[in-house]
Amino acid sequence: MKICVYGAGGIGCYVGGRLAASGSDVTFVGRPRLAAEVASNGLRLTDFRGAELRVNAVRFEVVPEAAAEADLVLVTVKSAGTATAGAELAKVLKPDAVVVSFQNGLRNASVLRAALPGHRVVTGMVPFNVLNRGDGVFHQGTEGFLDVEPGLSSYAPAFEAAGLPLTEHADMAPVQWAKLLLNLNNPINALSDLPLRDELSQRGYRLCLAAAQSEALVVLKAAGIEPAQLTAVPARLMPRILRLPDWLFRRLAGRMLAIDPLARSSMWEDLQAGRPTEIDYLNGEITTLGASLGIPTPINTRITTLIHQSEQTPTPYPAATLLHHLTAPS
Ligand SMILES: NC(=O)C1=CN([C@@H]2O[C@H](COP(=O)(O)OP(=O)(O)OC[C@H]3O[C@@H](n4cnc5c(N)ncnc54)[C@H](OP(=O)(O)O)[C@@H]3O)[C@@H](O)[C@H]2O)C=CC1
Ligand SMILES: CC(C)(CO)C(=O)C(=O)O
């Protein structure tokens, strides 16, 4: 069984690296800069529990043709790159290759299905954080396992052996919406320019997130969407918990702060690298759904605008300033 990671960056190198470390035959397809880094250093995979794995002989390629032999393709490009990745894969994949989208956002699997008619495309979700620390080091900063649609049972033992068991969901939409609600913190974390733990320790940033989530929950309710429960606190109660004063938040929701001190959102990494972010695929979904229902979404719209500004000129926002930007009357 041959596995290809298509779009090998943070998630791809970590998930694919763990599969390779446990004996799976993995080919990585990514960019030349990372290919050179991995050629010099191999992959070193660390996690918040202190575990460390090394993969020395890494097959890291930079052309789509390297996916031609794959039985299973894990797509881990950012959302803006999905259509291109799908078009590239369409030219090279074996007819029976199965494709999994391990991406945030709601529409990536559909984009891949449109590009790859005839292939089984499975929606997946990665709940944990991975930080690219440079020199081939990828660090898992938070806990969680992989969620997928049914259809990968023949590959389940490989993921199990890698310590990344697959949890199946007949309907991934509630899981994806719940993840999107959590991802509303990505831009707030990116704008704070702080590690997740430091950001979420400050009530001012939590108030920003609570405002974005409350607005999103109104839209979801009007649309009849019930998000899955991915955390100890159900999604609908999260804004109330986030608004607690710091001392009470630490006491009642200390588990939310059990985050590796290094962990940051993938959107922070994009801003740092000068790449376009996934903001339109995260907060933008709330704005689009709200507009379709006639529900205004000023908080998520303002966050989207601030991130687009930061894509041009990265600007860190102290908590009080960010809260003011989001909630001041227009
Ligand atoms: N990082 C995290 O902690 C988490 C991320 N996610 C989600 O997982 C997905 C992947 O995120 P992440 O791993 O952080 O992203 P990265 O940007 O780290 O990795 C994606 C890599 O794929 C490369 N790439 C893009 N298009 C192609 C292509 N056509 N061929 C080859 N390589 C390509 C990118 O290069 P280039 O930049 O040049 O385009 C980049 O190096 C996103 O949807 C993200 O939201 C989910 C959970 C946690
Ligand atoms: C894991 C989480 C929620 C936060 O890091 C994420 O999905 C991301 O960074 O994109």
TrEMBL record:
PANTHER family: 2-DEHYDROPANTOATE 2-REDUCTASE (PTHR43765:SF2), 2-DEHYDROPANTOATE 2-REDUCTASE-RELATED (PTHR43765)
Family: Belongs to the ketopantoate reductase family.
Keywords from the UniProt entry: NADP, Oxidoreductase, Pantothenate biosynthesis
Protein name from the UniProt record: 2-dehydropantoate 2-reductase
Superkingdom: Bacteria
Limits of the Ketopantoate reductase N-terminal domain: 3-147
Physiological role: Catalyzes the NADPH-dependent reduction of ketopantoate into pantoic acid.
One Gene Ontology term of the molecular function aspect: 2-dehydropantoate 2-reductase activity
TM regions (residue ranges): none
Pathway listed: Cofactor biosynthesis; (R)-pantothenate biosynthesis; (R)-pantoate from 3-methyl-2-oxobutanoate: step 2/2
Catalytic activity: (R)-pantoate + NADP(+) = 2-dehydropantoate + NADPH + H(+)
Lineage of origin: Bacteria, Bacillati, Actinomycetota, Actinomycetes, Propionibacteriales
InterPro entries named among the record's database cross-references: 6-PGluconate_DH-like_C_sf, 6PGD_dom2, ApbA, Ketopantoate_reductase, KPA_reductase, KPR_N, NAD(P)-bd_dom_sf
Enzyme class: oxidoreductase
Enzyme Commission number(s): 1.1.1.169
Residue ranges occupied by any Ketopantoate reductase C-terminal domain in the UniProt entry: 172-310
Organism: Kribbella deserti
Keyword NADP: yes
